[in-house]
Automatic annotation (TrEMBL):
It is found in: Membrane. InterPro entries: Leu-rich_rpt (IPR001611), Leu-rich_rpt_typical-subtyp (IPR003591), LRR_dom_sf (IPR032675). Keywords: Glycoprotein, Leucine-rich repeat, Membrane, Receptor, Repeat, Signal, Transmembrane, Transmembrane helix. The lineage of its organism: Eukaryota, Viridiplantae, Streptophyta, Embryophyta, Tracheophyta. GO terms for cellular component: membrane. PROSITE patterns: LRR. It comes from Aegilops tauschii subsp. strangulata. It holds the Pfam family LRR_8. This is LRR receptor-like serine/threonine-protein kinase. Gene3D superfamilies: Ribonuclease Inhibitor.
Length: 474
């Protein structure tokens, strides 16, 4: 049951003032400090301004409630407050210029509220702050230049409506471990001076309108673990200097306009767990050296202009969960060694120019949930071994030259999405097992198929049935 904060807190009268307390059984002495940790208590209503009168209040955590109204300005005049946690409420209003009066405050978190307005110019006076989290509000305006005077370890401004450039002065904030400017409307280039942030572990700038090239200087951020630059308007090539980031776990460059080849020395990022370059204009071949990234679980190079064959060396990345090379110009056969990736959950090689057969070795992919080989030039039969894939939920083989029947799929009991349309398949479509759940569109464009919703399996009937052209479906 939701109760107002004044009702949830037991009324408590002390010699000089009336208070509302939650777990104190007596008035606190001037020599004691007791934290007020009331997060996740379904509190509603406004924050009482009388909280500011609590002596020795060093920790105030009201996160994850339903509190509304504005943050009382009197709170900013509590001389001993060190920790203010208000995230996950419904607070409104603006950030007060008085917020920097708290000379001992090191933790300020108002994430996930409905605050509006701009960051006050006085922000540069908050020199005691170590954590400043303003993310997921409705803050506007530019990021003030004097934010660079802060000595914070964490600066999170994500999910607001900030505009304008990234202030270069941020590159002088040597204490920064986490810088999150993602999902705003920031524009202009990435300042090369950010490469001076030698202690930064997480750099998030995705979801903005950043332009220009990726500064090679980012390769100097020797402690960087996460580099997220996706969903911007970046151009140029991927700097080879990023190969110096040997501690990098996650590199996301997706949905930009990057060109040129993938640098071979990306393989020097030996701890890389995820590499996503989807939706760019990268060309050249897939580097064989990527096989050195033994820790990688996700490789997404889809929707680029990559050509050449799939390197057989990719089969050495034993921990791969996701391999997505779709929407490129990749040629040649599918390496049978891909079937040795026993942890693979998703394989997407669609919309390329692959030839040859579906490897029977795919039957060894016992964990696989999705296989998409559609829109290639594959031929041959559907391997019987695919029937061993008990976890397979999606199989897309449409728009190839596959022949034979579909009997090998009858034992794929988890399959709920199937598209084998526009091939050269023949024979009876089963009406038992799981085949009855599939859309009739799954089988279009295979004149030799019969049964199910298709023509009955009599030579005279299905031969007379008009064929549906691919153009009609597309």
């Amino acid at each position: 049951m939701r109760l107002g904060i004044a009702r949830r807190l037991r009324r408590w009268i002390c010699p000089s003032t009336t208070w509302m307390a939650t777990y104190h059984s007596r008035c606190p002495s001037s020599s004691t400090s007791k934290p007020w940790i009331l997060k996740n208590n379904q509190l509603v209503g406004a924050i009482p301004s009388t909280l500011s009168q609590l002596p020795n209040l060093k920790i105030l955590d009201l996160a994850q409630n339903k509190l509304s109204g504005e943050i009382p300005r009197l709170i900013y005049w509590n001389e001993v407050l060190q920790y203010l946690g208000l995230r996950g409420n419904q607070l409104e209003g603006t950030l007060s210029p008085d917020m920097c009066q708290l000379t001992g405050l090191w933790y300020f978190d108002v994430k996930n509220n409905s605050l509006t307005g701009e960051i006050p110019e006085t922000i540069g006076n908050c020199t005691s702050f170590q954590v400043l989290d303003l993310s997921y509000n409705h803050l506007t305006g530019s990021i003030p230049f004097n934010i660079g005077f802060l000595q914070v370890a964490t600066l999170s401004l994500q999910g607001n409506k900030f505009t304008g450039p990234i202030p270069s002065v941020i590159g002088l904030m040597q204490a920064l471990a986490v810088l999150d400017l993602s999902y705003n409307q920031l524009s202009g280039p990435i300042p090369s001076i950010l490469g001076n942030l030698s202690y930064t572990e997480k750099l998030y700038m995705q979801g903005n309108r950043l332009t220009g090239t990726i500064p090679p200087e980012l390769g100097n951020m020797s402690t960087l673990h996460y580099l997220e630059l996706n969903d911007n308007q970046l151009t140029g090539s991927i700097p080879s200097e990023l190969g110096k980031l040997t501690g990098l776990y996650d590199l996301n460059l997706a949905n930009n306009s990057l060109e040129g080849p993938i640098p071979n020395n990306i393989s020097s990022c030996v701890n890389l767990n995820s590499f996503n370059a989807h939706g760019n204009k990268l060309n050249g071949t897939i580097p064989r050296s990527l096989c050195k990234l033994e820790s990688m679980t996700s490789l997404n190079l889809s929707s680029n202009h990559l050509s050449g064959p799939i390197p057989i060396e990719l089969s050495r990345i034993n921990n791969l969960d996701i391999l997505d090379l779709s929407c490129n110009m990749i040629t040649g056969p599918i390496p049978s060694a891909i079937g040795s990736l026993e942890h693979l959950l998703k394989l997407n090689l669609s919309k390329n120019a692959l030839v040859g057969f579906i490897p029977a070795e795919f039957g060894n992919l016992r964990s696989i949930g999705e296989i998409d080989l559609s829109n290639n030039h594959l031929g041959g039969l559907i391997p019987q071994e695919l029937g061993m894939l008990q976890n397979l939920m999606l199989l897309k083989l449409e728009n190839n030259n596959i022949t034979g029947d579909v009997s090998s799929l009858m034992n794929c009991f988890s399959l709920n999405t199937l598209n084998i349309s526009f091939n050269n398949l023949a024979g009876v479509v089963p009406t038992d097992n799981n085949f009855s759940r599939f859309s009739p569109d799954s089988f279009l464009g295979n004149p030799g198929l019969c049964g199910y919703w298709l023509a009955s399996c009599r030579s005279s009937s299905h031969q007379d049935k008009p064929q549906i052209s691919k153009a009609a479906i597309l």
